Amino acid sequence: MKRIAVSLFTAILLFSNSYSQFSKQARDSIYKITVGDYQNMLSQLGITSVRPGVSGMDPKAPDYANYDESKANPYPNLPDPLVLKNGKKVTSAKMWWKQRYKEIMEDFDREIYGRMPQQIPKVNWEVTEVKNDTVGKFKVITKKLVGHVDNSACPTIKVDIQLSLTTPADANGSVPVMMEFGFIFPPGFKIPNSGNKTKELSWQEQVLAKGWGFAILAPYSVQADHGAGLTQGIIGLTNKGQFRKPDDWGALRAWTWGASRALDYFETDKAVDAKKVGIEGHSRFGKATLVTMAYDSRFAIAFVSSSGAGGAKLHRRYAGEVVENLTSSGEYHWMAGNFLKYGGPLNAGDLPVDSHELIALCAPRPVFICSGEVGDAWVDARGMFMAAVGGGPVYKLLGKKDLGTDVFPKVETGLMEGDLTFRQHSGGHTSGPNWPTFIEFASRYFK
Ligand code: GCU
Prior knowledge:
Rossmann fold, binds alpha-D-glucopyranuronic acid
């Protein structure tokens, strides 16, 4: 069993790394095209040099990431989510929704994640397979779906979104569903049966044990995970294969768009209670999860695992991964082109908004921000906690409960009382150990 679990983990790791599933030749070509795209964006912005990122690998390297808390807050002042650009205080929910929410959204659109095009072709969902199946001891019905994006305006670029939906076979009526940004395994692959010790249930089994369903969205079928792919996928399709403009959307915003289209489908499927669809993702997909929750208010709850830089972590922190990593040629494609400025002529302290305001955009809906500890320092748990604290006032303004403290909690001590919650498990870079805590949290909303 252990062996299977390990190889499953390895498979996920291999798939999750943006390059490793390609041959050396393909990697070289992706790299070359990426560098060209990256250079194009720098020249559109008039940037001649960007600062290098820090390294997460070798503690002895001179550019090793900072983990010294006394150096971690070079820009201690965060923009106030409850002060308008004209200096007026936001004192009511109405002022939040009518004025401040829009200001913050505009800044995230233009500077951080990029704008979604105004016209995006329709997605036509096709159910390609319906199967009675089992997951562990649970009898389920699994649907495989493909979302064909209308490409009549640019037939050379094809986008087929891959989605799977699994619901309990014995459900009477629609059920809540947790959707993960993840991997759709090849036909015949079974999620390893983890035996009958409750402690070892896979997250899918834990969800099914509650009577809920789960869905998997394959983000790379929406948008590739490298700069070379920016002239393809949904970004390339809407651009007709041209380079992005500086405020055009990046991969994170594109993956988010894919999640919204999956939710469109769920709204048409009687097996799903579309008012109770949650979203979950880990690492780069943790980032995508938070962006999804911020941008699509139909999602009921979010499980944001180890999202780090570009996710829940404050950009203004100097700990673990930093802005200059996000603006490198390996990661800039996640973001708007404009974001590159903050790794070049500008710096993190110049950003008009920071991640506490991304969390605020999710309010009043429930959000769980979490990570591991040992082996997960790169995501800067404290920087994510500080962002959650900073988003709290908006939850309170909208009549909800924030974290309830600004004291960083001990590992394995969840701050789980409010609608905005936080926990660090003691393991590494994985969402696994936080699932039971999340499910308890979600049970308060998925009655
Ligand atoms: C890298 C990257 C992170 C990202 C992670 C992943 O470590 O620096 O920002 O979250 O990959 O998604 O696996």
